[in-house]
UniProtKB/TrEMBL annotation, chain A:
Keyword DNA repair: no
ABC transporter domain segment(s): 5-244
Signal peptide segment: none
Alphabetical list of SUPFAM superfamilies matching this protein: P-loop containing nucleoside triphosphate hydrolases
Keywords: ATP-binding, Nucleotide-binding, Transport
Designated name of the protein: ABC transporter ATP-binding protein
GO CC list: plasma membrane
NCBIfam families attached to this UniProt entry: urea_trans_UrtD
Pfam family name, one: BCA_ABC_TP_C
Keyword ATP-binding tagged: yes
An annotated Gene Ontology molecular function: ATP binding
Species the sequence originates in: Methylopila jiangsuensis
TrEMBL record, chain B:
InterPro entries, alphabetized: AmiC_PBP1, Peripla_BP_I, TAT_signal
Family annotation (PROSITE patterns): TAT
Signal peptide bounds: 1-33
Keyword 4Fe-4S included in the entry's annotation: no
Protein's UniProt name: ABC transporter substrate-binding protein
Keywords associated with the record: Signal
Organism whose genome encodes this protein: Methylopila jiangsuensis
Pfam families with a match to the protein in the record: Peripla_BP_5 (PF13433)
Listed GO MF terms: amide binding
The organism's place on the tree of life at top rank: Bacteria
TrEMBL record, chain C:
Membrane topology category: Multi-pass membrane protein
Top-level taxon of the source organism: Bacteria
Pfam families: BPD_transp_2
Transmembrane segments: 12-29, 41-60, 67-84, 114-136, 143-161, 193-211, 232-263, 275-301, 313-331
Species for this entry: Methylopila jiangsuensis
Gene Ontology cellular-component terms listed: plasma membrane
Name of the protein described by the UniProt record: Urea ABC transporter permease subunit UrtC
A GO term, aspect molecular function: branched-chain amino acid transmembrane transporter activity
Subcellular location: Cell membrane
Main location per the UniProt record: membrane
TrEMBL record, chain D:
Record field: transmembrane: 7-37, 57-81, 93-115, 135-161, 195-217, 223-247, 254-276
GO biological process, one term: amino acid transport
Endpoints of the signal sequence: none
The name this protein goes by in its record: Urea ABC transporter permease subunit UrtB
Record has Membrane as a keyword: yes
Membrane topology annotation: Multi-pass membrane protein
Primary localisation category: membrane
InterPro entries reported in the protein's UniProt record: ABC_transp_permease (IPR001851), ABC_UrtB_bac (IPR017779), BCAA_transport_permease (IPR052157)
Gene Ontology CC annotation, any one: plasma membrane
Subcellular location: Cell membrane
Amino acid sequence: MPGLLEIKNLSKSFDATKVINDFSMEVTEGTLCCLVGPNGAGKTTTMDLVTGRIKPTSGAILFAGEDITAKHEHVIARAGIGRKFQVPAVLKNLTVRQNLEVAYSRQTNPFWNLFKFHKAGLKEKLDEIATLAGLTTRLGEQAGILSHGETQWLEIGMVLMQEPRLLLMDEPIAGMTEGEIEKTARIFKDLQKTATLIVVEHDMGFVREIADVVTVMHMGSMLAQGSLQEIEANPRVRDVYLGEKEAA
Amino acid sequence: MDFTRRRLLTTAAAASAAAIAMPNIMTSDKAYAAPLKKGEPIKVGLLFSLTGALAVPEEDSTLALQYAFEEINKNGGVGGVPVEPVIVDAKSDFGVYSEKTKELILREKVTALFGCYTSASRKAILPTVMQRNHLLYYPTCYEGAECTQNTICTGPLANQHSQDLIPFMVEKFGKKVFFVGSNYVWPKESNKNAKIWLEKAGGELLGEEYIPLGSSEFGPVLNKIRDAKPDFIFSTVVGASDIAFHKQFKQEGFKVDTMPIASLTTGEIETRAMGAEFGAGHFLSAPYFQSLDNPTNQKFVENFLKSKYGKNGVTHYNMEETYLTAYVFKAGFEKAAAAVGFENVTPRAIRDHSGGVRVEDAVSPEGLVWIDENNFNTWLKPKIGQCQADGTFKIVKAAEKHVAPDPYSIYPDAGVCTKDGLKAPDGKVRTNVI
Amino acid sequence: MGNLYHNKTAQWLVYTAFFLGLAVIPSFVSDDFLLNQLATYGVYGMLALSISLCWGFGGILNLGQGIAFGLGAYGMAMTMQMQSQTESNPIPPFMLNNSLDQLPWFWEPFSNTAAGLILSIAVPTLFCAIFGGVMFRARVSGPFFAIMTLAMLSAFYTIILDRQPYTGGVNGITPPSPLQLGGFEIDPYSSTAYWIVLAILVTATVVAKLITQSSFGLVTQAIRDDAERVRFLGYSVAGYETAIYTISGAIAAFAGCCLVMLVQYVSPAQLDVGFSLSMVIWAAIGGRLSLLGAMCGAFLIQGAQSYLGDAFLATWLLILGGFFIVVVRFLPNGLASLLESALGLLATKPKTPAAETNGDAKPLPAE
Amino acid sequence: MDLGSLLNALILGLSIASIWLIAALGLTIIYGAAGVINMAHGEFIMLGAYSSYMLQYYLGLPYLLCIPASFVIVGAVGLALERGLIRYLYNRPLDTLLATYGVSLVLMQGVRLIFGSDPKYLAAPEIFSSNISLGFASISSFRVVILLVTALCVLGVWLLFYKTRFGVQVRAVMQNKEMAASFGINSSRVYMMTFALGAGLAGVAGSLFGVLAIVLPTMGASYVVQAFLMVVTGGGSLAGTVVASGVTGELQSIFAFFTNDTFARFVIFVLIVVFLRFRPQGLFAQAGARR
């Protein structure tokens, strides 16, 4: 059975610099895959490529067997890929409730939405997600005044409101407290029952806790892939990581 | 406002019922000017722009009219009653022209309007003036091709303006001419007339170019003129563009003595703004110049510049034409009052009695003029002046006889403008043709 | 945050009161001039409304609203002009003067009043849909889109000025008699004309208000906030932007028709850059985030221009410009936001969060 | 049509291009470096013309000295404006557009109150009122002056931005304000200086246009839309504006040669819109991050 997401020989250059270099990866449905690698390895660029924010120079991306290479962002999102950004991107001037409501994007056609004032199933879903994200008391606030952690939760909440088949989480736990990190791990594990996740993370502790599969990127290419134990035992990964740490 | 809720509802209901029953409440029979009373001043509206792009010429128009009415009031007023000008600012905005017209007619209930410098603003206010059967004095040259029963014009029409200028220039400088104008109606219509005179004089048209209104880039046009090598240029460029045109003419190396510009617009004001060095040597056709040598004009220039209205230090054709409207109004009003009685004078009555009224040599700085009995434009004598090094104009030719205004001179098929409307060749008469 | 300002019911009540107030004016005002003037303000209100919808709720600053407005106005003027042409006199006089002896093809449909009226709205709306569609697909946004609309406006202005035989050039079109509808002549100074304008204004406002409260409105507000983010939620940003730009253009086209009905005149000045910028000023001063606020801004500025303008003859533009700067600098959401803060201070205990919805406004009626 | 006329049209196109370029140069700097859409740019040009007029009329300063003096005066006005208003609006680009439109209303009406609404006369040395003839081609000497001053200004700006420490700072701030701040660059000061510089360049343009055309309170309005189009088409960079002005200037001259001026303008407006449809980022986009 082919993976839910297949990345085949993906390359991306900006001017003369190759940021992604012949990168291939496959994510099986129902797994939680962690994407790790030193800064500049091309993790976020890969996310950008998958979600259509930038177009690849060559290569193909398949989602559920369908070619989504270089499609528009909204088309890819509608196909079932949700994304949380590295720098939390919420709609700062709208209320928390409105943020979640917008993210509930079952109907995306502008003309239908002109005549829609109540969305079926919204209330239940919104209550559920708000409770999950711990934002029930903050629903009326402007998203712009939330703390960093709350903003992270709101964005995670938004992605969940989208009900995607594949979730891309770019550094979801940055700025969270210990307790929150634990909660996030719990939620991710929960989500895995219904969806597939790719999580970009630096925190190896967190990765250890959640990952089914770990993919290591370096200089725009795949360095290693496998279970956490395999990765930790891989000498090349060690070199790269240690070299990186010393340089920094 | 004090009212009970019930009353409000009933009035609202009654009003809407009335409105639905008679959507066309008003007709032109209603009198829209205040009933005149002997001893009370006659209100007239002065509708010019005092701010914005049109303020340059129109502020002078307001000043000239204020001066004229002060002079008239000092000498006994109109029909024995002083005139009270109501001055508004049209802000160079056609929407405001329209709004102010309504305000003057409907609220101030003036007896006549004096206003506008451009055809566009005139066209913006004419619907109101015509619908209210009111009266507009339009004091500037224009293209004609209009026949309404509610306007009187004292400026030269396109057919009067260039009648002498073109033959004069052809005779003096040569047959080949290039037409340059601003890109709008008046220059194009003026050029159509000019072509007729040019053909009669045996001249040859080498090219015709129109510049966007307000544009100051004359490079391409001057290049075309350089290639065409005409003997003179006939210009209907207006406003700020006109000044840029004269400046660039000289900067591009054109020589005024071999290829002068014969203009319908470049008067004393424009020359001063561009600097006399750029204006000197060019020609202008107009019914009036500040330098006209007659006692009435000398007195007019002296008194006007001395008065508080003469702050801009110059008199020019447009001001003088505006000044004349006050006297045309006086004559028309008095004639109407004699015919129907002072209290019964309406704007329309003034207009109907204005046919043939004269402003005599003793009053008119440009000399005797009178209003045509059919089309209510003005019989006048166009003159040609040449700009001197000091920015004044030297009269080089004055028409022998008065030239008749003919708004449809180049459109004989359209008909003839009569007192009651445009009489088409098939005999049908249409009112208010604009 | 139990701010009454954000209460939907309160908003609708104030809107209703405002329009009821406007509706009864003709019953006590017998001044033809005032009625006509108020109707004209209604047209300006419509324009401010359209800007508020597009800019306040969609985040699209449109400096070229004069295009839709002007095209609507020209359509109406052409319709009215053709009403006064007869069998024996089939061509508008200004065309004869420009040596046209046949009616141009694109004037033909305007001989039929119904077709003319439909075209007056349809053409500008279609233009907005196409222009907006093309621009938004190319992801032209923010200040760039503003400049593009400005360029397009200048292009229209130039071409209307240049094609004198078909458009009347700078003199524009002056239909000699008022609009005839179903055998009735609509006197521009009558309460009928006033109510027609008011009815269109009310309809436009209600439609706009409903749009802002619909799911569509929520998405456009999200786009205003961060268009990039909204794409990843699955919405076609270009589609939404085009739609709201087009709806706003259609309202402006209605305004253009109404204006010509009231003043019987159209000229390229309707497409002047300065006029389109004043629409933005009205909305900005009144409060672009509030439909009613923007409308009141138009009433306020135009009223002041009419009644204070002459008193402060020379300094009027100075005052207007200065006032505008102060509003932009200190009150970016306009005068309506003053009321919002005032009511915010009054609000005591937080109500149920359900009461809060979009950031629409509720300024007091001007009277 | 003969070749000589076409050549003349091409030479004239160069001159038109230089006029557009000098009008847009200040705007480019202000937009490119600070991201401010300055709607008052036209009024800065107008102020330049009026300062030259004032210096000449009241102090009798020779025209060629009026040009740098206008640079200083209008630059100072720009500086004051930046300190008093613009600096509070840097993160609100649409609001700067609106606020500067308010400024333009105030400046226009202010000048009208002081100097009246009638046009003023700005004299240039007699030598500029002639033309230079190169056989079949001919151009007015004043147009050559404009061309030279424009070239000088562009060169100056280029040197300043690419060869000096200040230029490095400006470009650093353009790229990333926070990063630049961490290197000790005072971005507030950089913005202030670029704004003043841009305003000063508008002043230079004004003192040239005053001689070429007319000195009026409303004179700036006709330049601002065109100048914007140059900047946007060019993508906000110096090279972009130079190329955009060059191409549109030539195009305008050639279209005007074959058709007429009004139509030439229309075609150019439409071409620019079409061009930006396919290259919304302009000719040469800024390297600065958009997000």
